[in-house]
Amino acid sequence: MNEKIQTISPLVDQFSRTISYLRLSVTDRCNLRCMYCMPEEEDNLETLVKSGKFLSHSDLLSYEELLRIVRLAVSLGMNKIRLTGGEPLVRKGLVDFIHNLNKIEGLDQIRLTTNGVLLSEYAKELYTNGVQHINVSLDTLKAEKFKKITGRDRFNDVWNGLMIAKDLGFRIKLNLVAMKGVNDDEFLDFFRLALEYPFQVRFIEFMPVGDKNSWQKTRFIESDTIREMAKSVGTLTPSEKHYGDGPARMFTLTGADGSTGSVGFISPISHHFCDKCNRLRLTSEGRLRACLLRDAETDLKSIIRSGGTDREIVDSIRQTILNKPQGHMLQDELGVEEKAGCSGKMSRIGG
Ligand code: SAM
Ligand code: SF4
C-alpha cells in the first residue's frame, strides 16, 4: 500500500539549484529524420523496433505510469512540465494525457516541444487543453533544404502549422540548431523573421550529442558569432530575464524601420548555463536523467514495474537530484576531441 507523500520544501541539489522543471520524452519515435538526431534512412516501424532502433510500445512508460510520476514530482515541488521526444505529437492519446496532466494541482505549466509537422492537426485541441506555449524546431526556411536536413518533404506542413498556431494565440518559440555550411546562410532571414512575426527566434549551439550523430567541430558556430551577424539587420538590446526564458540569453532586435522582435541564443557550449540548471529529464525508456550531457540515469521504470511504492519513486527522484552533476565538461572535451558529449540518443532523452 502506498503511503501518502507529504508536500515538502523545494527540491534543491547539492549545488543549491532548485529543481522545478521536468522534461518528459513521451516517445522516441519521430516523423522526421533530422541529420543530427536520427539520421537512419530506414522507415519501416517493425524493422526499426526489431533492430532496437526504436523502443517497442511496452518499453515506453504508459500514460498512467507517467501521470503517477508527474503527480509525485509535483508533490515534491516541481511545477513545470515539458513534453518532448522524439516527436511528442506522434504518440497516440497525447491530448487526453495532457487533459489529465492539467488536473494535477500544483502543476502550473505544461509546455510542448514539437517539429511542427502535425501542428495544424493538433493546435486547437492543444490550446483548449491548456498547452498555449510551444517550442517549434525549424532549422531552415527553405523547403528543399528542409528535406535535406530532415529527410522528409514536410516544410509546408510545419509552416502551415506555425501560422495556425500563431492565429490561435499560441506563444511560440522557434528554435533552430545553428550549423555552419548547413543553415548559416539563412541566419539573417531568421533575424528578419523575428521582426516580421511574433515568434521568439532562438539559435541553439550544435551539440555533440548521441553516438552516431553528424556533429563535427567544423559545423559548430558559437552564439557570439551569430549575434554579431544580427548587426546587419538591426540593433540588439538585452531583454530582461523572465521566468520561463530558460537558458536562452534573450534580446530585443530593433530593425531600421523601428520594428521589433525577440531573439535568443542558447549556448550550452560557449556560455554554459549549468549553474542555473533547474531541470530533470525522464527519458522515453523511463529513466531519470539529471543532465542532458551526462549519461548517468536512474531506471524508474524498473522500480515502478517491480511494484515500487510511491515512497520508493520519490526517493529515486530525490537521489537523482542529489547526484545531479555540477555541470557538463563539453567545453573542455571540445578542445581535445572531435567527438565528445553523451552517448544517449537525443530522441530518447528529449533534447
Ligand atoms: N521532435 C521535437 C523537435 O524536434 O522539436 C522534440 C524533440 S528534439 C530531440 C528537441 C530539440 O533538440 C530540437 O529543437 C532539436 O533541434 C534539438 N536537437 C537535437 N539534436 C541536437 C544537437 N545535436 N544539438 C543541438 N540541438 C539538438
Ligand atoms: Fe525528430 Fe526532433 Fe529528432 Fe528531428 S530533432 S529527428 S524532429 S526528434
Radius of gyration: 20 Å
Judged by helices, strands and strand pairing, the structural class is alpha/beta
CATH superfamily caption? Aldolase class I
Strand content: 15-25%
What oligomeric state do these chains adopt?
single chain
Look at the structure and give the CATH class: Alpha Beta
SSE string: EHHEHEHEHHEHEHEEEEEEHHHH
Give the low-pLDDT segments. 336-340
CATH architecture: Alpha-Beta Barrel
Q: Compute the number of strand runs.
A: 12
Kindly give the count of domains: 1
Bound small molecules, by name, code or SMILES, are: S-adenosylmethionine, iron/sulfur cluster
Question: Total helix count?
Answer: 12
User: What level of helicity do the residues show?
Assistant: 25-40%
